Prior knowledge:
CATH architecture of the largest domain: Up-down Bundle
Bound molecules: zinc ion
Number of helices: 15
Strand content: 5-15%
Strand order of the largest sheet: 1-10-9
Family: Belongs to the PqiA family.
Order of helices and strands: EEEEEHEEHHHHEHHHEEHEEHHHHEHH
Number of domains: 3
Transmembrane segments: 47-67, 95-121, 167-188, 265-285, 311-334, 355-376, 382-404
CATH class of the largest domain: Mainly Alpha
Helix content: 55-70%
CATH topology of the largest domain: Butyryl-CoA Dehydrogenase, subunit A, domain 3
Radius of gyration: 24 Å
Protein name: PqiA/YebS family transporter subunit
Pfam family, one: PqiA
Subcellular location: Cell inner membrane
Distance between the termini: 32 Å
Structural class: mainly alpha
Amino acid sequence: MQRNDLISCHDCGVLYRRRPLAPREKARCVRCGSVLYRGAPPRLNRVAAITLGAIIVFLIAQFFPIVELDVNGYTVSATLLGAIRVLWQEQMQAVAVSVLLFTFVFPAIELGALLYVTLALRAGYQPPGFHRLLRAVRKARQWGMTEVLMIGILITLIKMTSLAKVVAQPGLFAFGALTLLLTVVVSFDPRALWLMGDGLAARDKPQQDRPMRYKALEGARPPLACHACGLVAADSGKGHGQRQHCARCGSTLHRRLPDSISRTWALLLGAAILYIPANLLPVMYTHSLFGKEDDTIISGVVYFWNSGSPALAAIIFIASIVVPVAKLAALALLATTSQRGSRWRPRQRTVLYRLVEFVGRWSMLDIFVITLTVGLVRFSSLAVITAGPGALAFCAVVVLTMLASMQFDPRLIWDAVDHKKSGEKNA
Ligand SMILES: [Zn+2]
Ligand SMILES: [Zn+2]
């Protein structure tokens, strides 16, 4: 019923037969250009060592102060978790929870689960909860935002130098190291670990109806590929009410994500509506000896521009204004063209989709800067800065557009192309 030697392109759905590759080789889809799989299987010792290193650095980054502010000899320091707690106490619970999830919970799940799975595979067995944990690694990876946080920390520090003397603390260096280690960790494809786990399971219980498996594929229905682990299985032809589950990892199998386009539209509409208050309402209130000030996202950009940091102004402008608008426009274009069955530039539209997936998380940058600013300034009693309702709306826009891009099934782009081809064949 299922085949390990087949691989379905994640972005366009074409089936390929796996073949052995040279260690540095990558197999790419000839139709849409996305990477199918890599040559060398990950070396478990290396994966385990780097993941363990990342966990140690993660703990230092989270529990040691990031920065110390020196205001006329009076010093204060702050951790990320401390800053999140300040947001929570200010009735910004939804923003505080989002920041906690993206910067603490999801990276912790990814690293913890990956270490557990690789250590077990290294010891030569498939551990309990193997499939569930690898699925968790994949999900957590989509939502972890350590690299965005790192840039947010740097921007906050530069902002603070105008208020006080800023002294870097161990947490700052640990976040830098964590960002570097995580770029190595995300280059491990969990699907390769799935194959290794399969190899071990097959060794433990040999020869169970193996030759039969390959026959089932030759039926009239094209096979289904699992979104989570990539296993290709024959379509059992179950009707609408019944669901077929992946024999390996247990995920529900779909030919295409159900109601992909209408769900994408609903999430996009929500994001577009919230985008208005996100830009009009203040994201920060400042009360100081010099008076009271409200900051919107765009006034934050203007502040950096006027205070002689045009590069920072440009980064925040791109991350907070350009990226969300471009993402809304790109997803609207993808949804419209797929809905109409357009055959216009499918390869370029697939690249656009990959780009949207890649840049989505960077819009959280301003939220991280706000969190750290609110936390640091509160501890230093220079002024009282509180987060405003604009931050909540903005956070919702980012989450909704990320969900919208995850709901969109890129294979829909290619369905019109396939449809035309099969029509030509039949004629
Ligand atoms: Zn493809
Ligand atoms: Zn699966």
